[in-house]
Amino acid sequence: MTVPVERSRRVVSATVDPGFPALKDRVIARTGHNYYEDKDDLLYDRLRKRMRTCGVADCAAYQSLLDGAAGREEWPALEAEITIGETFFFRYAEQFAALRRTILPELIEARREIRRLRIWSAGCSTGAEPYSLAILVHDLLGDALPDWSVTILGTDLSAAALATAREAEFGPWALRTLDTEERARWFRRTPVRPGLPHGGYALRPAFRRMVRFERQNLLTLIDGSDRTQGGFDLILCRNVLIYFSADHVTRIVRALGERLNPQGWLLIGHAEPNPTFSQWLQPVALPGTVAYRPIDTPVPPPLPVVMPALPDVVPILVAPPPAPAPAAPALDLPELPLPAPIPRPAAAAIEHPLSPGDLLAEIRVLADAGETARAWRRLHEEIDGYATDSPLRYYEGLLALDLGREREAERALRGALFLDRGFVMAHFQLGLLLARVGRRGEAARALDNALRLAQGLPPETILPEGDGVSAARLAESARRALAGITGRNA
Ligand SMILES: C[S@@+](CC[C@H](N)C(=O)[O-])C[C@H]1O[C@@H](n2cnc3c(N)ncnc32)[C@H](O)[C@@H]1O
Question: The whole model's pTM is what?
């Protein structure tokens, strides 16, 4: 049997390198990334990249390097390599709705006398999460902001992610749930530069200066060496706990709870709650999500804890499966001829080694690591094998957009719509793209389609491929984008 060269090399190398098990234990002990316990190939791949860069031949030599003087610089490089920094602005819309409607207004009211807010985004990656919080606090405090002392601290293990966070310049991928008006309000366009071949979006200084970043390993919370002061009003630690062992998770959550003010709030990733947390924290159900508060905070009568219907992306970042197409209102489909599905022999699909979900996971990992060009090339290489998969065509479009390849983006988004007319996010992104290139009539039609489809769904429905965006929020964004094009009132 012929095994693809790349695959066989990977598996064999992890298995035969005698120094691998000890190095793996070391890496897991230092980072807490129990996630790699059963992922030797993946970990080995990442180690191998660093070994190549350092010019060492095997794991034993690499471990000696880490233990020597060079370890000071090499550990952060390795940590950056093995962490997965998936993040984007206003990730998981229900939690941000809860922050905007309940948590922050309540905190602002409670702190009105002392006019001080302390917020911590633990495991903040490249900063989209603490910056989203800064935008919210800025909006909510309005003209009163200068009278308040607001601390928003972002911490992460990855020094590379923090360096990007401090720059506060993002590609469209990190802004993918924002509409044109939000992008213009919170960011300014920046020129082309390496890594951002079609320019980026720099967060406006008013929000940027509200956030401070520090390197911190969450394991220090449980080994006693943490130097973070307590007294936080709000802590977010989302999509980080998934890396750790169950024991570490409970100890970290307990330690985070101990760093909250008595009236404080803790938000964790919406796939991460665990009944054991209620030993130290009380869960509070909010629409579509659950938050935690110190056990003795008086809260309104207990509500049943309702877990959200769909999980957020977890390390492997598989997008939720497409929901059944809604009973669609008559659609005004785009005028341009729809592309024919890419022809390919039917048998090839059966032979293909990756499921669409696996391929999507691989693509998202690359894109989230800032390697959108590689992700797009990878997807483009493979797309023939997945020509009937509308989410993959959609992501092909998003990646092409990120790279400024507008024609390819349009083709891919129309391809996704050809396969699934009820694909709200594809109508929406197509509308934004067409508006950007000045094709107002077609843009208005695509946005109208998105609006009508979204309005036809229960408002709280989380849209497939919408990264947590609800039908109501998408409808609002589509309405605003339409108003920008047509001059109609939003
Ligand atoms: C998937 S990102 C989540 C980013 C953000 N919280 C969000 O939900 O959008 C996970 C982040 O956790 C960080 N991380 C992983 N292990 C960590 C540790 N031991 N201490 C601190 N941060 C860690 C990673 O570097 C990565 O940036």
Answer: 0.71
120 belongs to a structural domain: yes
CATH number at residue 193: 3.40.50.150
Which residue blocks in 142-209 are alpha helix, DSSP H? 159-167, 180-186, 205-208
Distance 19 CA to ligand 1 centre (A): 27
Q: Rounded to whole angstroms, how far apart are CA atoms 261 and 126?
A: 26
Cα distance between residue 347 and residue 162, in whole Å: 46
Instruction: Report which listed range, 134-143, 170-179, 297-306, 402-411, is most confident.
Output: 134-143
Average pLDDT score over residue span 107-128: 97
Instruction: Find which of 18-27, 88-97, 384-393, 462-471 is predicted with most confidence, using mean pLDDT.
Output: 18-27
| Structure-model confidence comparison of residues 366 and 448, the more confident one | 448
Note whether residue 116 is domain-resident.
yes
Mean pLDDT (the chain) is 83
Residue that is last in its domain, among 82, 112, 143: 82
Residue nearest to atom 2 of ligand 1 (CA): 85
Instruction: Give the distance (Å) from ligand 1 centre to CA of residue 123.
Output: 4
- Residues 77, 183: one domain? no
Atom of ligand 1 nearest to the CA of 269: 8
How far is the C-alpha of 201 from the C-alpha of 169, rounded, in Å? Answer: 5
Residues 104 and 143 in one domain: yes
Q: How far is the CA of 381 from the centre of ligand 1 (A)?
A: 30
Ligand 1 pocket, residues with Cβ under 6 angstroms: 31-32, 83-87, 91, 123-125, 129, 156-158, 161, 217-219, 238-240, 243
At 490 the pLDDT is: 52
Q: Which of 27, 153, 157 to mutate to test the pocket of ligand 1 (most atoms within 8 A of CB)?
A: 157
Query: Which range of residues forms the domain containing residue 469?
Result: 346-486
Considering the domain architecture, whether residues 165 and 200 belong to the same structural domain is answered as yes
pLDDT score, position 350:
36
Separation of alpha carbons 352 and 329, rounded Å:
36
On whether both 69 and 100 belong to a single domain, the answer is no
From 99, 156, 216, 267, give the residue whose CB has the most ligand 1 atoms within 8 Å, as the site to mutate.
156
Coil vs helix vs strand at 298: coil
C-alpha of residue 237 to centroid of ligand 1, in Å: 8
Strand order in the sheet with 200-203: 169-170, 200-203, 187-190
Find the helix packing angle between 356-368 and 390-402, rounded to 10°.
Answer: 20
* Residue 201: φ, ψ to 5°: -130, 115
